Amino acid sequence: MLRRRQPETSWESAGEDGAVLPEEALQHVNSLYGAALRFTRNPADAEDLVQETYLKAFRFAARFEPGTSLKAWLHTILYNTFLNTRRQAAREPVVAGGDVVENSGAPESRSPTPEQLLLRRALDGDLQAAVDSLPDAFRQAVWLRDVEEFSYREIADILQVAPGTVMSRISRGRRMLHDRLAGCRTP
Fold it and tell me: Same domain for 90 and 131?
């Protein structure tokens, strides 16, 4: 059970049922932002997603089970929030010039922001292009395993799929990366 105490900061104020979210939750903001950026491919949307994740984590702090991975719990909230936002965007009609246009749910094309350009410079250009070209399911699984270093079980919990599916996606995603990067080599 989460400990109850007097709030020292606004962050430690009690959420639902008076539960307090552990202070360690803030240590994972960079990890969450990196995953959110991979999911949304847009810095502003990634920031919104991380903010919404922390709001939900605060609200439902009583549901966190001490002794389990706080980072994995936060990533699960992040992923579920991302999926819900994407589903909602796909259902909402887009209004353009007074006319309702059907929304395909596909993310709109945007030119890279300075933040995205900086992130791309951190990775080799060919590697970045190969990672970006992976289908979402494979990119997310590979990112959570190889960058965030989650266990297969934690990834399965975050993505809400079977551990075997996680292993398959990581294996296939890595194979796709290998094939794409092999095509970039010059003899």
Answer: no
H helical segments located in 60-184: 70-91, 114-122, 125-133, 136-142, 152-159, 163-182
Q: For the segment 125-145, what is each residue's pLDDT rounded down to a tens digit?
A: 777 788 888 998 999 999 889
Q: Residues 33-38: what's their mean pLDDT?
A: 90
The tokens for 177 are: 């990366």
Segment 142-169 mean pLDDT: 92
What tokens does 161 get?
């799929």
**Total domains in the fold of the chain:** 2
For the range 27-31, what are the long-range contacts, defined as Cβ-Cβ under 8 Å and sequence gap of 24 or more? Answer: 28/70, 28/71, 28/74, 29/54, 31/71, 31/75, 31/148
Domain residues for the domain of 186 are 123-187
pLDDT at 135: 93
Same domain assignment for residues 95 and 130: no
Q: Give pTM, 2 decimals.
A: 0.61
Q: What is the CATH number of the domain that holds 151?
A: 1.10.10.10
CA dist 131 and 41 (Å) reads: 12
